[in-house]
Amino acid sequence: MATTSHDTPRVLVVGAGQAGMHVAVRLRHRLRPGEATITVVDPHSYLTYQPLLAEAAAGNLEPRHVVVPLRPVLPGVEVITRAVVSIDHSRRTAYLASDAGAPEPLGYDVVVLAPGSVTRVLPVPGLAERGIGFKTVGEAIHLRNHVLAQLDTAASAGSDAERERALTFVFVGGGYAGVEALAELQDMARAACRHYPGIEPGQMRWVLLEATGRILPEVGERMGHYTADLLRRRGIDIRLDTRLTSVVDGHVVLDDGSEFDAGTLVWTAGVAPHPLLKQTGVPLDERGRVLVTEYLSIVDTPGAWALGDCAAVPDLTRDPGAVCPPSAQHAVRQARVAADNVIAALRGSALKPYRHTSAGSVAGLGLYQGVAQIYRLRLRGMPAWLAHRTYHLLTLPTWNRRLRVVADWTLALLFPREIVSLDALEHARDEFTNAAAEAARRR
Ligand SMILES: Cc1cc2nc3c(=O)[nH]c(=O)nc-3n(C[C@H](O)[C@H](O)[C@H](O)COP(=O)(O)OP(=O)(O)OC[C@H]3O[C@@H](n4cnc5c(N)ncnc54)[C@H](O)[C@@H]3O)c2cc1C
């Protein structure tokens, strides 16, 4: 593993998501040749464009097209596909997970922390065994296959109880991850029902649990109510002020007293800062996010910067003490300021503060349905759906991905939905290992 033997300073970017990848892109464009070496470390070789995961899960998009491979986007940047497990900033050293055993050291001069967040899982009995999150492309692919496989299970179920369980889908958390995933998957499952003669769309039970009194806070209260009404009209059981208390063996128990069996439980009830942050020694706030100044430099830690979901970035457009919510909208804009400030610090010039007034949010709720609040403009239905698609097309990195997504959307409009469940992908080696075991028995 390379250390800081470089003649030029090394800027190490930890995490190449919405924040980290855009920092690296900007540094690459703005640094003079030979001014610094840029190194990006991420366990994945691609950025996941999370706002389009729900469309990938619904089959409107090829999952490969909602991820952006890092190496073509970052020519000349050192890309290391590993996880950082700890950082000793006093020694300017990051430690990277290694198959060989002990973590390997990687020296740096300047570090930019952007490992994002992880799903916030609560100690609900049965949740770890039965639940699945909705943050990664793997989870989106799995959910699509799983929902379609549940229809297959229901179609050939031996009892009413088995059938009802297979046709019950529970989502916990009414933010945009949960609402978009539920709305898109329900839309897909309803369309798929016409290929299952024994299953009527109305026989499926889709439930959204939200612990507070509203859903989709990202689009404002009024549009949140509109979304709840729209989803209820689509037959979705939305339960506000309701918590999941247990899901042992798929038996759902709620704090409103109701109980039922469910074959699917998707957990999108918030995010927590990445656990790596506790292994870095940098100052954290009471919620575990990195404490940064308005310049995105880490408080009392020269040569260290943080941004995106992992950081408590002061929101200068709101009351003192307010911090930016975790969103791609902020992460991408913070990335520009962070990269410019890293360069300014290297050159000894003035830093600029991060300030961005939220432009609002857009959300897709299935084919031709959406909701949006863009500044003071409120949109619903088809116009909101078009705004959702246009916005994400413009913010999706690279023309390559944008064109592929347009092609996918066009094909999806021209042809009926693809409803095959490729759950065999998740057990790709089973057939071969069974054959090998059989051969070993015969020997
Ligand atoms: C389903 C869904 C829909 C969303 N929709 C919207 C939307 O419509 N609009 C919006 O503004 N926001 C949306 N968001 C939120 C948005 O995606 C995040 O706020 C944004 O991605 C945060 O950027 P980030 O770079 O901080 O984290 P991420 O984009 O999550 O990137 C973190 C990176 O760090 C890497 N990493 C993790 N661990 C390590 C490690 N140990 N070492 C090195 N690297 C590591 C990860 O692999 C990842 O590449 C959505 C989120 C989800 C889950």
From TrEMBL:
Residues 10-335 form the FAD/NAD(P)-binding domain. It holds the Pfam family Pyr_redox_2. It comes from the Bacteria. Keywords: FAD, Flavoprotein, NAD, Oxidoreductase. The keyword Transferase does not apply. InterPro entries: FAD/NAD-bd_sf, FAD/NAD-binding_dom, NDH-2. Belongs to the NADH dehydrogenase family. PANTHER family: NADH DEHYDROGENASE, NADH DEHYDROGENASE-LIKE PROTEIN RV1812C. This is NAD(P)/FAD-dependent oxidoreductase. It comes from Amycolatopsis acididurans.
